[in-house]
Amino acid sequence: AERACAIFLTLCGAIVFAFCIGSISSLVSQRNLTETHIESELRTIQDFFRLKNLPRNLEIRAKQHLMHTAKSAQHLVHPCLNSLPDRTRQMIIEYIMKGTLDKHPFFVDMDYDCRCFMAEYLTPIFVQKDEILFRALDVGFEMYFVVEGEFEAWNVEDNKVLAKLGKGEYLGEISLFPDISTCRTSTVKAKIDSEVLSLRRDDFYNHIRPHFPDVYEAIKRLAITKQRWLDSAIVKRYAREQSQHRCDHIYNKIKEIQTRKLFVMSRSQKGFNSPSLSPTSMSAR
């Protein structure tokens, strides 16, 4: 009887232990679904870069960007929120990004409704020391809110420092408005490791402008003010020179192709018009 009781208790203990281990494993796997997804994305990046034999430094930079995004804006690397109602999704995203949004005065005093809406269209970007965020005369499609770090803006003509921009500043807002300028007006480089929030032109026009026209007008006033402060004549001159060089290059390439085609056509025409050799003429020769 004692032996049977001992065996029974041992079996019960083993069953309870197995149940606990299974439950813990299940909880761990459920808790780490997002981490598993991120690890899968990192492996995909690694496989892609190895397949294409791309430079190692670009692979490292891509992984750094993914890890920073996963830390600051998890919703951008996992599609789990896509099926939720818009309002619920925006509230969750605002909560996720609250720590980052609170670092910039543009969002600190903003009403909750607008802040939740805008948070969905902001992307956190980590910028390494000495990394160039954008270059003068580049075509721009984003503006940036500086939430950490420091940047230097350089003149397009002689690479002199125009301004130093830190936490709470704005970068690239002119590029959101093609009617003000079609290209970047300066080169911006990170002086130390920094973080920005990017806002794309398409999202700005298609989502924020229709729902919050006051935000659109406020950012446009910022862009106009900065454009007046800059020496736009120099930027326009360099932009014209770059455009002329680009057009000349395209024209010369087209001319080369047309010349080559005309040469081939003329050779073909000569061969077509030349008298054919008959068997009689062949035998006479």
Give the integer mean of the pLDDT values.
86
CATH class descriptor of the largest domain: Mainly Beta
> Which secondary-structure class do the elements indicate?
alpha+beta
In percent terms, what proportion of residues is strand? Answer: 5-15%
CATH topology of the largest domain, anyone? Jelly Rolls
Helix content: 55-70%
Q: How would a textbook summarize the main sheet? A: 4 strands, antiparallel
Spatial order of the strands forming the largest sheet: 1-8-3-6
Shape: extended
- Unreliable stretches covering 5 or more consecutive residues: 277-285
E-strand count: 8
Quickly give the CATH architecture of the largest domain.
Sandwich
What's the gyration radius in Å? 31 Å
- Total helical elements: 11
Could you give me the name of the CATH homologous superfamily of the largest domain? Jelly Rolls
Distance between the termini: 122 Å
